[in-house]
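Table S2 (text version). Query chain:
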Amino acid sequence: MTKTQGSSGRWAMMLTMAMMVSGMMMAQTPAGPVMSPATVAAEPSAPAPQVAVPKANPFPPVNLKNFTADSPTVAEVNSFLTAIWGYDPNRIWSVAAIQKTPAPGVAKVVVFIADKTKASGGQSAAFYITPDGKHAIAGDVIDFGAKPFADARKKLQESADGPAEGATSKDLEFVEFSDLQCAKCAEAQDTINNLQKDFPTARIVFENFPQTEVHTYAFRAATDGVCVRKQKGDAAFFTYAQQVYGKQAALTAQSVNAALDAAVTAAGADPKAVGTCAETQAAKDVVNAQVKLATDLGVDALPTLYVNGHPLPLANIPYETLKKIIAFQAGQDGIEVHVQPTLTTLH
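Corresponding structure-token output:
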């Protein structure tokens, strides 16, 4: 399956739902007085700004007739939505309906979403829960539950063994899936560099996911990188990767050899030795294993950053929002981080 570089990926639908009440994407609230028994609001970490706010309950009154499915419960849905949206202290939502569908065991969940800093009413979104209660379908299949990222986190801790920088501990682990010939991936490196500064206790791991259907030289760039790492270590790999990102325009039939050799040389490795190594099955197997890891996780957009198993489409999230999500996810996993304002956002 061809991945769309820079697209939001399967989790972006949930992130988009989270952002639409902030004015990024607005949807019309359908008519009908539906409302869940409970409304969830994250507690603000700082005093609320002095702006117009909606009434305490901006949602329509409850209609228990809209709760016809036995599973999931309102509490389970709220726990799941907290895991997705809890990073934003101004977001409130209501589980408006949990309904049976014609598909046996499949439940439809409707939620209303609002922003405490806005005077407008709630917006609506819907997704479906599979009979086993472990997955949600929101444009694609995603994990469901109070800890929807736990399985991915464990898998990455066990299997993401690409070049790493930052902390040695995997308590707070960022795993980037990238393609060295992907333009959006190159643009995202500033974000990765900033995250390294803003989250110094994080371990940042790079995993190749070359999109050979659209990037002719991505796999070769990846195997060269494997051999640079083998010859000179992780730090040399990151120098090599940065060089390749900067030379993407030269990754053509006429100039690819010179471009990759120059990147290898800049990393302090021997281009001839790296070229020989890159042709071995062992080097190719390393890249193929990284591709399989990405495929098993369901990565469908590049670049994607997993934060303790929480997949985030780097090309689609404002940096300050990204930091909030990371800090919230760390908190969910019992890790305390202190988020400082980014210098470029200060006035």
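Notes on Table S2: The first strand starts at residue 4 and ends at 5. The longest helix spans residues 281-297.
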